[in-house]
Amino acid sequence: MNLVIIGVGLIGGSFAKDIKRLYPDANIIGIDKKEAHVDEALELQLVDQKGTYDALATADMVFVSIPVDALVKELPKILDAVGDETVVMDAGSTKKLICETVDNHPKRRNFLACHPIAGTEFSGPSAAINGLYEGKTNIICEVEKTAFKLQEKALEIFQKLKMRIRYMNPEAHDKHIAYVSHLSHISSFMLGKTVIEKEKNERDIFDMAGSGFESTVRLAKSSPDMWTPIFEQNKENVVETLEEYIHNLERFKQLLLSGDFENVYKEMNNTNRIKQILKGIPLTKNEN
Amino acid sequence: MNLVIIGVGLIGGSFAKDIKRLYPDANIIGIDKKEAHVDEALELQLVDQKGTYDALATADMVFVSIPVDALVKELPKILDAVGDETVVMDAGSTKKLICETVDNHPKRRNFLACHPIAGTEFSGPSAAINGLYEGKTNIICEVEKTAFKLQEKALEIFQKLKMRIRYMNPEAHDKHIAYVSHLSHISSFMLGKTVIEKEKNERDIFDMAGSGFESTVRLAKSSPDMWTPIFEQNKENVVETLEEYIHNLERFKQLLLSGDFENVYKEMNNTNRIKQILKGIPLTKNEN
């Protein structure tokens, strides 16, 4: 198998690791805007060789894992360059603009719009880990627009990666993911900001923060290069989630101010069922 | 050593485990409002026997790990009952009201006001784990009001538990802890609420949530019995942190709405340094 990975960071690099394990004979070509990233990926043996878009014509599969602003720019060019039997998959955290961008592309049938729900707060080739995708959900959009044979080729790999597949339209994807992923990132970033602003003495944060704070603020370590274009592309949905979140925080504050601790209790008690909802979400085993 | 633990949940039970390991000859007496909890603690061999406040007169040490509303009610009675050489420590997440409550108590010198920054989102005796306190900070308030010999007795144990000690006045404790602990819990509870309200189909949350959401919403599994009285006692500080948090979220929303993604990027980039600040915070090894 000839696999080209465009963007050899955490997502692309982890995919490379799995493919190497599942298909020892695979030839993996790495492409990255940052020369240093491909060099690092080579050194870490994530990829077998460096490449350019010239490699796309003979690729069996292309995995594009770059920030979503770069994705909408590059995807048409990538499709221009691939062969008829090549399946191109992305891993973008937004789907609507990406699907629209290639909707009329002559090679639309070579593209499978994917969003594997997997990752950590780290980035770059050195953040790549084994088994990142195992047990995780892969959301596939507009599957009917991809050539059936190429769907099959991709699905065989997802099956070997032990991923769960969920089909969804791009609008629904972007709406739901704003709640369960994009909002978490903002809540975490702003929590980090609030605490840093207040606690000018960083030693205080360090001394007084427990694992609870560490966990809640974990996503505030995420890459702004990755997240700024996600928020830009999914602006409407994200703003809606933020408004509801702020509304709920305001209400909680009012309950505190008015001394209504019966309802403070109820708010928390009702939310406790997140425990049952989340039970069984496969955690990433090794998050560095 | 005769140790009485009042409240044999996660905090008291984990303390019992450590003491058993460090002092194999210790006799540990468990007291809990919930009969089932003491029975469970006995069964799990966290404690050696059940007890009542009659056991306090001959105790070397009393560890009080109960919700902070119960703490302000029980602490004066506990001090009434202890012997002259008994040191009583609490583990409450608020310190001002607790210190005020016993400030004029004739046995004030037997009390050491503590807040070990340790815990998980779980509760009850079965949540107790080994080594919960290792490497964690223990904040001690008004240390000068505790008899020196009893300070020494307690500090010897904290040292053996490998805890870091930090001295602080109760007002400063409550102010700082509102930022690095109490606010995280509210941000997490309200995130959970926002997502549950929106995603009526819980399967969607389960399928689309990644480890990022899981981590950010982890504290929303916490016990409302424990947290309602904390928010009540620390209301003023908590409301202040909430106002700043909401302000920051509002500002982020405005940046999104006005399409100012340069500043969206900067907000996240500036907050990324939480990575360095948190580096080295000891995580709890086994969080169930």
UniProtKB/TrEMBL annotation, chains A, B:
Its EC number is 1.3.1.12. InterPro entries: 6-PGluconate_DH-like_C_sf, NAD(P)-bd_dom_sf, PDH_C, PDH_N, Preph/Arog_dehydrog, Prephen_DH. Signal peptide: none annotated. The keyword rRNA-binding does not apply. One of its GO terms (biological process) is tyrosine biosynthetic process. Transmembrane segments: none annotated. It comes from the Bacteria. Residues 1-286 form the Prephenate/arogenate dehydrogenase domain. Keywords: Oxidoreductase. Pfam families: PDH_C (PF20463), PDH_N (PF02153). It is an enzyme of class 1 (oxidoreductase). One of its GO terms (molecular function) is prephenate dehydrogenase (NADP+) activity. This is Prephenate dehydrogenase. The lineage of its organism: Bacteria, Pseudomonadati, Bacteroidota, Flavobacteriia, Flavobacteriales.
